[in-house]
Amino acid sequence: QVKLRLRYWINSRVGKAISRPSTFRSDAQLLVFALRNISSDEDAALLSLGIYSAALRRSLASPVSIFFIDESPILFQYNSIAELIGRLCANGAKAGIRVILSAQDPDTISKSPSAAKIFQNITTRLVGRIQPTAVDSFVNILKYPSDIINKNATEGFFPKQEGMYSQWLLDDNGIYTYCRFYPGSALLTAVANNPEESAIRQTAMRLHPKDKIMAMHYASKKMAEMRNSEVQVVNSKLPEPRAKVRIHN
Question: From CA 98, how far away is CA 86, in angstroms rounded?
């Protein structure tokens, strides 16, 4: 039975990945681990242990490091990963590790076995535009006053294309501040994900296959032109202000 189990792990996709020498540079400034197509909690446990050990090695080499998890609710479905994240949130600060979680809602995190460790040790939060149906979750789970978080669910909280900024609620240890973020055109071009903007970026990459900087510069100019034309079209559809008539005696 032991041989059968070992043979299974050696021939599995995860087993093949962890049984071979690492191909990434351990001294790189940025390490990205993509956890895709995880089929079981056992697979998640093995992969997360590898990432956890890599994070600890980096923390020993640098006084301060950031452990960023994108789309974290997907990973919180696996208890083994949730436990390791909770451990990092609780004890990582001693080793100089700062944990940042990106999530669409707090519900999945609150249902994980490590929810208490995570919520108690992450004291700074940024909340962007949310759906009206998500307001109750922020009130019940994160204990936000309804009159404050309700503003995040209004249409006025959408990112402003004409001003090229997004709006956020900054929660710093219970102190609430509304703020804006104005991204640079190159940064906005790099992360744009709607179909039209993605097509412009892909076209720029094909035009400048050997110079990514030039490709991003070209794409950012084209996207800026597209956004400006859309703003002008919207403004042209606005009704003209009525003339005010003053009658003097």
Answer: 12
* The two three-digit tokens of residue 95, written as one number: 């080793």
Look at residue 27 in the predicted model and tell me its pLDDT.
Answer: 73
* Domain coordinates in residue numbering, the chain: 14-122, 124-182, 184-236
Residue 33 confidence class, pLDDT cut points 50, 70, 90: confident
**Angle of helix 79-91 relative to helix 41-61, nearest 10 degrees?**
20
Going through the chain in order, the beta strands assigned E by DSSP cover 65-69, 97-101, 124-127, 166-172, 175-181
The SS3 assignment for 100 reads: strand
pLDDT tens per residue, range 206-237: 999 889 889 988 888 888 888 777 655 445 44
pTM for the full predicted model: 0.73
Q: How many CA atoms lie within 13 A of 130 on its CB side?
A: 22
> pLDDT tens across 4-24, in order?
877 777 777 667 766 666 666
- From the list 136, 101, 104, the residue with the least C-alpha distance to 119 is 101
The two three-digit tokens of residue 49, written as one number: 């242990």
The owner of tokens 């071009």 is 189
* Residue 213, token pair as written in the block: 């900087």
pLDDT digits (tens, 9 = 90+) for 58-90: 777 788 888 888 888 878 888 888 888 888 888
**Of residues 197, 195, 194, 216, the one with CA closest to residue 205:** 216
How far apart (Å, rounded) are the C-alpha atoms in residues 205 and 94? Answer: 43
What is the Cα–Cα distance from 211 to 140, expressed in whole angstroms?
50
**200-203 long-range contacts, CB within 8 A, separation 24+:** 200/226
Query: From CA 60, how far away is CA 58, in angstroms rounded?
Result: 5
Using DSSP, state whether 19 is helix, strand or coil: coil
